[in-house]
Design a protein that fits this description.
With 127 residues, the protein is mainly α. The protein is built from four helices and no strands. Helix 1 runs antiparallel to helix 4 and helix 3 packs antiparallel against helix 4. It starts with a helix and ends in an 8-residue tail after the last helix. The structure holds protoporphyrin IX containing FE. Protoporphyrin IX containing FE (HEM) binds next to helix 1, helix 2, helix 3 and helix 4.
């Protein structure tokens, strides 16, 4: 697949991931039963798989690897943090306060990942 197309798929799935996470967090805050709808439980995982698959394909094609490229290492580590915080926010958090704080932190981590991607700098705006 063409690199530019992969990048567009990656960016589109990133935007969809953010929107779905934002929406699910708002439903979590309202205790909405929509959070348990089948499509809500499946679609984010399919989309996130596409996000990661397109990332891996671009890493391989462009031969820019995490560890070697600090901005890619930062993205990978931040992605893991985003996943863990997302799990706490939408599933594992015991209290509403914990879930809300984890949700806000995950949104912050997502914004950081986009800033790293655009600047290709692990310390966007600083380093
Ligand atoms: C939530 C997770 C992620 C988000 C929101 C995200 C977002 C983005 C965005 C917005 C771009 C376009 C940047 C630009 O050129 O302006 C991009 C590019 C890219 N991302 Fe990600 N990304 C994520 C995860 C990852 C991961 C885990 C990797 C691999 C370790 C990765 C590898 C890349 C690569 C190789 C590019 C293309 C850079 C280029 O050739 O221009 N991304 N990402």
């Amino acid at each position: 697949m063409d690199y530019l197309l992969l990048k567009q798929v990656h960016m589109a799935s990133a935007a969809i991931s953010f929107s779905l996470f934002l929406l699910r967090g708002l439903w979590m805050l309202r205790n909405s039963p929509r959070l348990r709808a089948l499509w809500v439980r499946i679609l984010p995982h399919l989309n996130d798989t596409l996000l990661l698959a397109s990332a891996i394909a671009m890493v391989v094609i462009s031969r820019q690897y995490p560890i070697e490229q600090h901005w890619l290492t930062a993205k990978l580590v931040a992605l893991m943090l985003y996943i863990v915080l997302g799990m706490v926010a939408l599933k594992r958090g015991r209290t509403r306060t914990v879930r809300t704080l984890a949700w806000l932190a995950a949104l912050g981590v997502f914004v950081y990942i986009v800033a790293v991607a655009v600047s290709r700098n692990p310390l966007p705006g600083i380093g």
